[in-house]
From TrEMBL:
It comes from Pontibacter korlensis. ATP binds at G11, T12, G13, K14, T15, I16. It holds the Pfam family CoaE. Belongs to the CoaE family. NCBIfam families: dephospho-CoA kinase. Catalyzes the phosphorylation of the 3'-hydroxyl group of dephosphocoenzyme A to form coenzyme A. It catalyses: 3'-dephospho-CoA + ATP = ADP + CoA + H(+). The keyword Plastid does not apply. Keywords: ATP-binding, Coenzyme A biosynthesis, Cytoplasm, Kinase, Nucleotide-binding, Transferase. GO terms for molecular function: ATP binding; dephospho-CoA kinase activity. This is Dephospho-CoA kinase. The gene is coaE. It is an enzyme of class 2 (transferase).
Amino acid sequence: MLKIGITGGIGTGKTIVSCMFAVLGVPVYDADSRAKWVMHHNLELRQELLDAFGSETFSEAGELNRTYLAGMVFNNPQRLEQLNSLVHPHVGKDFETWSASHAAKPYVIKEAALMFESESWRQMDEVVAVYAPLELRLKRLLKRDAHRTEADIKAIIARQLSEEEKMRRAQHVIYNNDRQLIIPQVLALHEQFSKANA
């Protein structure tokens, strides 16, 4: 079974691409949502987070205090790196367990914004980068995330690996630029990945 990574910066449309693969019957692991699940349910990680970030990390009801945690790491690269160094290994193990449950499939997909930053690309056989130009990403995100300003979005983008670097490191690129159709690009890769493990 092939393990295919899908990555791309905020607003590139990697989730739309992943949904298209899911419609084709490919199991898709959403690293962001699974990370939240793991932070809630993995007792070892919960304790590591409490030790690192204090008792306010979880509410009295045991819910992850995402607002508090985001405030701790947003403009603090060292704290963000600390958080990622705790969370990513547990998500990696969770992905391996999940992948094993889909062993009969020709391939599975892991969607992750920080695939290269977190080193999780090392678990993948191949990586697909989803690309969109900056001005189009800003337009999409300002429409989608009404609570964010252009400055907020640019700050997030500035902390992510550049799109050019992602494209250089990936084995495949899907262009989501409103000029090239996405579906034919997805279908071509689906055929390629399915045959590779036939």
